Amino acid sequence: MNAPMNGAAALPASSAGRSPSLADMQGLRPAGMAAEEWALRLELAACYRLFDYLGWTEMIYNHITLRVPGGAADNPHYLINPFGLHYAFVTASNLVKIDARGAVVGHSDFPVNPAGFTIHSVIHAARADAHCIMHTHTTAGMAVACKQEGMRHDNFYTAMLHGQVAYHEFEGITTHLGEGPRLIASLGQRNVLVLRNHGLLVCGEDIPVTLQTMWTAQRGCEIQMAADSMAGANHPIDPKVFGVILEQRRPMQMQSRPGQVLFDGMLQRAGIRYPDLV
Ligand SMILES: [Zn+2]
Fold this sequence. Notes:
Layout: H1 35-54, E1 64-72, E2 75-80, E3 96-99, H2 114-126, E4 132-136, H3 139-145, H4 156-160, E5 165-168, H5 180-187, E6 192-195, E7 199-204, H6 207-228, H7 240-254, H8 260-270
Parallel strand pairs: 5-6
Antiparallel strand pairs: 1-2, 1-4, 2-3, 4-7, 6-7
Bound molecules: zinc ion.
């Protein structure tokens, strides 16, 4: 291996391109902003960039929302993407803080999409554990959402989601809160929601675990779409295997922040670094 041209010590291969940690980023925190909110803004901006890297975008539409400390108990605060900006341009600073009713908290140079936040707001309000909500219109997710039988648990990824997927009937573009109670009833305590004829929605305790669940659902839909395009019957999974998978995955889900290794590893692969997201 050749020495670096500038004589600087080479980074170990394992850390090359890795972003400074969120803790390292506190020195760049804007005056008056709480440390926790700054870290959450950076992590959420990185997640938007990762969605773009993965191709999980829909023009300027769709949202990833995250609960942040602040606000009243009955009117908490959330972060959402600025409306009109592609995910590729989301930064920690241009994320918009809104309350539970979708009103901007403080100042923002950008508007938000109130219609887009409607689904997120009712789920955030009803599920104390749903700090993070991700919604996509990917081709595979929408295609499966258009099928009568929905997500079929007969591939490696959808098998992991057996018993965790809920369904909600399409009522048109969700622009009013009247659909909220039916949406909440549809979701129940599950973390994956197939919005029929519409797309996928996933909720979770934080960004990494929600991303991990969305990736599992997305890949499952991609495989289902590919398998269904091929001649011949699909091979079912023995229902006993679902219980086996549940036991196999339990230790992974007991870790602190499951999905963190995946999230950090993919940020590195995509070249997404926190100093570029300020
Ligand atoms: Zn949608």
